């Protein structure tokens, strides 16, 4: 592996090692296997309290190493605690020991596979419960329970209603990308799920932003939590070159096509505000001979998986996505992010451009800004203290 996330504190020789954070030899061996040399800032801050069983509320972007920040200590805790023995009755719900809730199917599958890597050789059952795939096969797999279950809220509630699984013995709940889950309307589902857990359990909340609704959820579900915000969580990574091209809205298609025809980096992600816009832009790019496709929630799961797989492989070089879809997708080597429209929220801008320059790499973020969007751009510059350089797109 060539991941090179910056270590926790590059300016000091006191940056802790994974061993100093309290992880044991078993877990350290898997970290070495994954090729991680030093903990990232979020890992350095979150691993010790999670290991100690505390509730944690952490501000963290995807790309910061947050999955390992919760997965590593939770695996160590699961290995240390014996699996509770139940009198297994025929038809009894499968027992889930740790539950991770994710906003989207893509993020859930990605998280499950990252955890499987961290759990190599640990003989733990890592399950996945997501919509968009037939329930029967999932049901069969989950009947025996899971040490860690990664799930999207809707499908999890289905399995709970069917009594495929139960949360009576669940000792830890992780809410990943809590802000996104709330934006997608999962607040009631989350509450309903949390109520199914035993009173005493550990809760971890990870979120890229902390709007009031997330803070309220945190107050409701977390017990005397430790609040964590590594400095990198609140500003875009410095390795991203931020650019803007001022063009009329009607010229955006032609401008983007010309730019990409001149030089198509290996992986480009283009963001549009709406699903319709992403479809029509992808069509325009394809007609211009560019290897592009749209990715959004109206496409069936199989199609979304295929699109993502070809983008990962590099056969599809331009992915045109909506914010909901792109959020949390961990694809390395995205060289260029294009904001086809200037996002209305500075947080969205940070999420979008965070798709590039992941794991210590460099990247460029280009916003196409029409005259009527200049005010939005100024607001982004003000709130994120970003230095966005104007370029001539012609
Ligand atoms: P995440 O924020 O969990 O989506 O992780 C982003 C990427 O960073 C993933 O590809 C991880 O494999 C990688 N990563 C996580 N922790 C480290 C680390 N300590 N050193 C290097 N890479 C890491």
TrEMBL record:
Domain DEAD-box RNA helicase Q: 16-44
Domain of life: Bacteria
Key words of the record: ATP-binding, Helicase, Hydrolase, Nucleotide-binding
Span of domain Helicase C-terminal: 255-394
GO function term, MF aspect, one: nucleic acid binding
Xref: InterPro entries: DEAD/DEAH_box_helicase_dom, DEAD/DEAH_RhlB, DEAD_box_RNA_helicase, Helicase_ATP-bd, Helicase_C-like, P-loop_NTPase, RNA-helicase_DEAD-box_CS, RNA_helicase_DEAD_Q_motif
GO cellular component: cytosol
CDD domains documented for this protein: DEADc, SF2_C_DEAD
Motif (Q motif): 16-44
All copies of domain Helicase ATP-binding, residue ranges: 47-228
Family recorded in the similarity comment: Belongs to the DEAD box helicase family.
This protein's name: DEAD/DEAH box helicase
Phylogenetic classification of the source organism: Bacteria, Pseudomonadati, Pseudomonadota, Alphaproteobacteria, Acetobacterales
